[in-house]
Structures are given as C-alpha cells and as structure tokens.
Amino acid sequence: MQRVAACKGCNPSARGFSRPTHRRPSRRSGAGLVAAGGLSSLASVVESQQFDRPMLEELFEVAREMERITEDGSECKILAGKVMGTLFYEPSTRTRLSFETAMCRLGGKVVSTENAREFSSVAKGETLEDTIRTLEQYVDVVVLRHFQAGSARIAADAASVPLISAGDGPGQHPTQALLDIYTIQKEIGRVDDTKVALVGDLANGRTARSLAYILSKFRNVKLYFVAPDVARINEDIKEHLTECGCEWEEVDNLQSVASEVDVLYQTRIQKERYGDRPEDYEKAQGKFIVDEDLMRLMKQDAVVMHPLPRVGEITPQVDADPRAAYFRQAKNGLYIRMALLATLLKGK
Amino acid sequence: MQRVAACKGCNPSARGFSRPTHRRPSRRSGAGLVAAGGLSSLASVVESQQFDRPMLEELFEVAREMERITEDGSECKILAGKVMGTLFYEPSTRTRLSFETAMCRLGGKVVSTENAREFSSVAKGETLEDTIRTLEQYVDVVVLRHFQAGSARIAADAASVPLISAGDGPGQHPTQALLDIYTIQKEIGRVDDTKVALVGDLANGRTARSLAYILSKFRNVKLYFVAPDVARINEDIKEHLTECGCEWEEVDNLQSVASEVDVLYQTRIQKERYGDRPEDYEKAQGKFIVDEDLMRLMKQDAVVMHPLPRVGEITPQVDADPRAAYFRQAKNGLYIRMALLATLLKGK
Amino acid sequence: MQRVAACKGCNPSARGFSRPTHRRPSRRSGAGLVAAGGLSSLASVVESQQFDRPMLEELFEVAREMERITEDGSECKILAGKVMGTLFYEPSTRTRLSFETAMCRLGGKVVSTENAREFSSVAKGETLEDTIRTLEQYVDVVVLRHFQAGSARIAADAASVPLISAGDGPGQHPTQALLDIYTIQKEIGRVDDTKVALVGDLANGRTARSLAYILSKFRNVKLYFVAPDVARINEDIKEHLTECGCEWEEVDNLQSVASEVDVLYQTRIQKERYGDRPEDYEKAQGKFIVDEDLMRLMKQDAVVMHPLPRVGEITPQVDADPRAAYFRQAKNGLYIRMALLATLLKGK
C-alpha cells in the first residue's frame, strides 16, 4: 500500500485535477511552485500539492514553535515591521480573521479589504495582475481570496512579494488542507497508518477533496467516502488515489465505518449549492449525523473533525466529548498560518 | 432618599427589566456576572447591572489611569501581544472605532468585522455560540455587537475568553452607561446628591434607560424625565426607581427643569423608530431643544450631555459653551473601554 | 517663461478653481492652510495649492528619508503610540490601503471605516463636523475621503487634530498630486525645464487637473493636453496656466508629442461618467493608446506615468519597459503619505 512515487497528481500542473500552467519564471527566485530547497525556498502558497512530505514535516515543526510563541503570551517580534495585505474578493470572515490574527501574533501589521471587487470593478476594469502589482508596492505579503479557480496562481505569478491563497472559488483552499493534516498529526500522533472517513458533501466541498489529495502523500492511509447519493466524491479523486496506491472505499453506512476509523471528518451539506433542488438538500442534510449515539461506536482515541461552520450534522451534545476536535482544529489554522507567514517573510 | 439595599433591580437576573437567566457555570471562573471579588474578578461585560458601586469606583480609578497614559502620548505596552476581535452583527462605527482605538492605545492589536452576519448566514446557519467558540481560538477578547436582546449573555456564556458587549439590540449597551456615569463623576465631581434631567426619546432609547438604572445605585439622586408624549419613559423603570428609593418626576417643561439640574442629558428622537408615524416624529423632534436661551437658565456648574449622534436637539451654538460636555463624554468612552480591556486582560 | 509670482490660482482661496473660504481660525495654530513657517507648521492637507515650492522640496526630502526607512525593513517607531482614523464616505481601497500601510510602516496604528456614511446616515442626520469632532476624541490624525467637493476643508476647519484629505468628490485629491510631482522629480531628476503630456480624460479626471496646477509652480514647464474631443481640459485651467506664464498646447496627435516629452501622463477614460453616452465612451477610450509602437517614439530618458487603475490605455506589453513608471509611482504614494503623516504627527 506504498504510494506510487511518480504520481502526477501529487505535483502541481499535472493533468486532471490541476490546471495546466504556463508560468513565467517568478521574479523572486525563478523557482517553481514546489520549492526545490524545501520549505525555506517557498515563494508563495497557491495549492496544497506544492507541499511534499518533507516540507509538511518542516511546516509542522514551525507550527509547533508557533504554538509555543502563542501560549507564551508575551509580545512576539518575529515579523515586526512587516505589513500583510488581505485582498478578499468575497467575504470569508473566519479565514480572514485567522490570517490577520496570525500576522498580529507574530508582531506584524495588517491592512485589509473585503471589498476587493471595488479595486477592479466592472466599471473600472482593472486586471487582477495590476491590482496585485499595485498592492505589492505597499505590503510585504498578500493574502488573496478570490471567486475564480486558478486566480491564486495568476496572482502569484504576477506578484514579486509572497502570496498566500485563502481559497480561490471552487479551486483550492490550501491552508485549510494544511491545517487539517496538521490536526490529524497532532490529535492521532501520526498520519501514516490511519483510517479516515470523509463524510457529507464530497461532491461540492473542496475541503474534503483537498484533504483526500494531501492524505495520498502518506503511507498506508485508508479512506472511506460516506456521502449522500447526490453528493458523492468525483471520479478524478478516486482515480488519483488508485494511481497513488492509496486504498479507498465508498460506504453508505456511517455506523459501520465509525468504529473502524481514527478520524471522522464531517462536512456541511452546502445548501447554497442546492438552490433549485431543495428536496435533494433535505435528503442529503439529514442522512449522516454525528451524535452521541455515533460517538459511542467510535474508538476511544479517534477524533471528529469539521472545517466549520456546521449546521446540524454534528449535534451540540458532541462538543463536550474530548474526541470532538473541531474547535482545536480551528486553532490549528492559526498556527499553520503563522507558520506560513513566518516562513515566507522571516529574514526578508 | 437612601437607596434600598436589597433592590432586585440593581442586580442581574432580577425580574422586570432583566431577563431571567439560567447560566451554566462559566468555564473561566465559575463566577456569576457580578464579580464577587470586585473588578479584578470581572469575567465579561454584558450589562451595567454587573457593576455595583465599589466596582464602579474601582473602574473610575483605572479610567483615570488610562487618561494619564493617553495624555502622556508615549507608546503603551500594557496589552502588547494581545489581540481583540470585534464581531459586529450590525454596523456601529462610532462604538467600534472607540473600542478599537482603546485596544490600540494599550499596545494591543485588533482584528475586526462589521459583516458578522456572514459568519452565520441564513444559508450556512451557524449558531452564535459556534461563532464565538471559533473566534476565541484566535483572539484574547471579543467585543460583540448584536441585534438581538440577550445575545450578549448567550455569547458570554459560550466564551472561554472575556467578552464585552457593545450593545445587543434593544437590550443593554453597558459601556455607554459606564461612560455616562464616569462623565457625571468627572464633570460634576460627584454622582451622589445630583439632579439629572433625562430629555428626549425615553421610550425607545436604551441609553436613557440604562443611565436611570445605574444612577439608582447612588445616594440622593433626583431624576427628571422630560419626554414628548409619544416617547415617555416606561413604567418598569419608574417602579424600579421607586423600589430603590430614588426620587423621580415626569415633567413637561424643559425650561422649568433647566435651572434645577446638575446634568441635562439630552437624547436624539430616533426617527428610524417612527417609520409609519412621521407626524409623531416631527412633533417629538421639535419639542425639547437645548439652545443658547436654555443654557442661560442653567447653573454655571451644570453640564449638558448627549450620547451622540445629535440632529437638531442641541443647536451648534451651544458647542462653544464650556458646559457642553458631549464631546468630552465621547472621549470618556475611550477611557472607560481602555479601563475595561486592561482589567479583563492584564496579567492573562 | 517664468511663473507670475502673485498668481492667485497658486494659492488657496483664490477665485475660479478654488472655492472662496471663510475659515474660522484653526484651533490648533491659528495658521491658514498655507503654512507660513514651511512644512513644519503644516496643520492639515486639504488641497495641493497649500504647498509652495519650498514646502514641496522639504516634503520630498522627508519622502526620501521614508524610502530609506522602508527599505531598511527593520521596525520603525517614529509614530509608535499614535493612532490614525480613516473615514471613507465612499470606498477607495487603493488609496485607503496606501494610507494605512504608510501609518503601519511608521510604527503607528490604524482604525478604519469604509462605511462612514453610516456615521451620519440620513436617518440619523449627523453633520460632518460632529462626526469629525467625535472621531478626533479617539485618534491623533484623520484621513478623510468624501463624495462632496469642499468637504475636506469643512472637516479640517472642524478638526482639532490634523486631517488629510484622501479626495473629496470632484474636488481635490492632494496626495495624488504630491506623489505625481514627486515621481517626476525622482524619475527625471528635476521638475523645472520639463515637457509633460497629459493624456486621456482631462475633463473629468481631477488627477490631470491637479497635476497641471502643481506643475505651474515650477519653471519652464511645457504642458501638452492630449484628449478626445468629448474630454478636453477645461478653460479655467488653461487660463490659470496662462496667468502663471506656464506654456501649454492642446494637441490631437499623441505620436507627434511622444518624441518631445519627458513625461507622458496617461489617464483612464472614466466610463462611469459616460453612463448615457456609451458611444462617446467608446470613441474616447480607443483614441490614445500607449503601446510598444508609441514607446519607440519616446526619448530614452522619458517616463510613462498613470494614476491607476488602467483599462486598455496602456497595453500590458509596455510594463516591461524600464520607462514604465506607473507601479513605481504607486510606491511613491506610500512614501509621500508616510512623509505627510510623519510631518503632521512627529513630536505631537
């Protein structure tokens, strides 16, 4: 069950789940998105496939250092004098506040907009590249949230300062995938040799897709996909996993899986994607609920994760269970974003 | 005219003007909202009734220290390394900027949203409790503005970090009441033994109501209520004052009261609450105006206060009068909010 | 070609292109808008005419110091302990982020609103003066963006803290004019003895107008106006230049001018101002394009400037030309705003 070394899917620009790329050489280092020299040569963060396993391990080490800094509580000056600009073309308050707090906790400062569409309004018609090239005159790092898949890479190519994607539409949300895998490492103590159930809206949620990809870089991971019929995982991911030698199984019964897994990763059925099919939403929403009964089936050292927000797919009674890891998972997002900012900006 | 010691209205959870509460023990300290050990054991700020008289006096002492820090002008590091998150479900720019400046002046940092509804949109359906539990993973203190009465308490119960209410709909706006009473103390030199006229929209404005409650904790305070017929003060407050032994009188003539009082507290007729009754608004708006003629009737050591914004209920000519205290009152809001933040966060 | 010493147009409050003013004496210094004692006595920034030539030279010296500070990269504490409030009545993300970064890079902090209309909503009806007098209780300097010409001066008159205009509707945008002239000085090495073509929407764009005015303070500047018929420069400016002894010429052929000038200042045709005349917009938009062909006609030491955003009036192929100065120009905006903030706040 070793992963196939040369799987194209594990690297950027491979076919299928990654758009072809024709990057002009970065003005910063000439390096591609996958940093040849490991984490220290990272130039921008646009997709989780940039991170190979040694880089992930380096990143986790930095994230642990960030935990120590945060818990220490005294003023940190690692990024004192640095300014981060957040450029959000659609609101994502939770992600924005996590990035902004990360910068603050490192001693840096933040300038911010949630109205980035105004920057390049239809009336004015500025390109994303121009917006980035303007903003980089001011700030030391750009955090971009955009509504179009592929825009993060376009922006990173245009930028001469580091850029971190905070999600690009139906595309990637790399920091979510990184914080998810970091949470598994912290909670379970390993990522290799784990069984992970991905539950809920696997068709529409990029979170579950991204996590599946990143898990395929580890050894002996078994994935269970538990989704309502209307929201099953796409074929491309299953093909990728098979190609990587990562075992997977589609299951229709959450109970049967609950006692098997180390991680139950629940996701929200995204009502906003069922606009014209409310009956499909209702059917999907109620099907797989994590409640106290289900928790009784789970192993004592397993955990429940969720990218949040949740609606009713995990009942509030579960919150008190020490295996409910979703709020700790949110905190890990802070540490991972601190680690990325520190890595990209330290010594620059 | 001593206040009745055991008045239920002066304490949280009492009947009538305070909703019944069934708090689960705070995860922070197990303490109720009224801090048994005085100001230093304060966990969150959700209503002005939390503050008994010794706590108010302690708070004023801290606020005076904040004035010294601010006037000194050099960089203050009391809250260096701390991050405040503002979570505003409705815009209140003035209050938000006051809180944010308060945090900045103490050396802390701020992350902020005025679009908090997006956090828990109808489509996504996150509960306020979940939003708070997520935000508290990032920040050291939450400032909440909400449109529903009672939400501040719900949020404070859910939070494991200190929470300060910046107003919850028609409910409480505790920091406004605290800055008002601090302004009286500063301007008049005392709160006991004062005569205070509350003027304007006493039915709809929570400001006047809150101030009346907090004044009832002091000795020998006489309150005059001067409101248009359509906006008279509610019965519950009059009952509470009577119960406390606090003297009050409803008056229809502002002139007759002006020469009596130490404090004339003017408020804006809230046009937005008269949507379907424009004639009522017009009648109420023009009735009690503070202008230069009225100022001539007032005592030389009296002051005019107003929570701002004003429309025409105090004429601009009054601004030059040294007894016009409303902009100094706004500044006191900064000091009180600094004092609360410093109290809640220092040494944590 | 010397400028006429006493031209009323070069000073504030002169007739024609500057509104009459009846300022009450500033509460800060009693000084008028033109600082008698040079840059150090500057109280507020509301229009570019406040800056005479010695003040501009002083300002440029400070801006150069700001460049050194920024490039040094270490934490700057010049404005540590100071708080800037941005009060934007209309969004202008680019300008706001430039000001906010400027304050951050000087060690100061920022509180910010893009929803300033809420401060004084129709329903509430607060005056701009009251809003300013409230905000100044909190912050050390106000940056105001407003939609009405003249509002910056009204606000500066009301303020007892320094105020900087970030543009007031069709009125002035003084920091843009200052950064433009600073860019010419840096790129060409002088402002005297230059030939400058202003191209594009000269009727609607305040940028070109402001630059023309400020250029008239220098010696032996020749201006070319190159605009489509529907967007020609207004008579008042031409009269002003003639009065100042500044040579100017209206030209219909960009090619013929390109080889002559030291600076080609391109501007965007503002589509939003052609709402009911789309055919006029189309005609104007395509008429004068800066592309690689045009660049071949230009002198080797000339530069192309643009206030940004651009649409198609400079083709992306031009960006790689070292004479393309528009992104460097954006960066100069940061330095000029840092210089103004440092000047207004240092030692206060």
TrEMBL record, chains A, B, C:
<dbReference type="InterPro" id="IPR036901">
    <property type="entry name" value="Asp/Orn_carbamoylTrfase_sf"/>
</dbReference>
<dbReference type="GO" id="GO:0016597">
    <property type="term" value="F:amino acid binding"/>
</dbReference>
<dbReference type="GO" id="GO:0006221">
    <property type="term" value="P:pyrimidine nucleotide biosynthetic process"/>
</dbReference>
<dbReference type="InterPro" id="IPR006132">
    <property type="entry name" value="Asp/Orn_carbamoyltranf_P-bd"/>
</dbReference>
<dbReference type="InterPro" id="IPR006131">
    <property type="entry name" value="Asp_carbamoyltransf_Asp/Orn-bd"/>
</dbReference>
<comment type="function">
    <text>Catalyzes the condensation of carbamoyl phosphate and aspartate to form carbamoyl aspartate and inorganic phosphate, the committed step in the de novo pyrimidine nucleotide biosynthesis pathway.</text>
</comment>
<dbReference type="InterPro" id="IPR006130">
    <property type="entry name" value="Asp/Orn_carbamoylTrfase"/>
</dbReference>
<feature type="domain" description="Aspartate/ornithine carbamoyltransferase carbamoyl-P binding">
    <location>
        <begin position="46"/>
        <end position="185"/>
    </location>
</feature>
<comment type="subunit">
    <text>Homotrimer.</text>
</comment>
<comment type="similarity">
    <text>Belongs to the aspartate/ornithine carbamoyltransferase superfamily. ATCase family.</text>
</comment>
<feature type="domain" description="Aspartate/ornithine carbamoyltransferase Asp/Orn-binding">
    <location>
        <begin position="193"/>
        <end position="343"/>
    </location>
</feature>
<dbReference type="GO" id="GO:0006207">
    <property type="term" value="P:'de novo' pyrimidine nucleobase biosynthetic process"/>
</dbReference>
<keyword id="KW-0665">Pyrimidine biosynthesis</keyword>
<dbReference type="InterPro" id="IPR002082">
    <property type="entry name" value="Asp_carbamoyltransf"/>
</dbReference>
<dbReference type="Pfam" id="PF00185">
    <property type="entry name" value="OTCace"/>
</dbReference>
<dbReference type="GO" id="GO:0006520">
    <property type="term" value="P:amino acid metabolic process"/>
</dbReference>
<dbReference type="GO" id="GO:0004070">
    <property type="term" value="F:aspartate carbamoyltransferase activity"/>
</dbReference>
<comment type="pathway">
    <text>Pyrimidine metabolism; UMP biosynthesis via de novo pathway; (S)-dihydroorotate from bicarbonate: step 2/3.</text>
</comment>
<protein>
    <recommendedName>
        <fullName>aspartate carbamoyltransferase</fullName>
        <ecNumber>2.1.3.2</ecNumber>
    </recommendedName>
</protein>
<keyword id="KW-0808">Transferase</keyword>
<dbReference type="Pfam" id="PF02729">
    <property type="entry name" value="OTCace_N"/>
</dbReference>
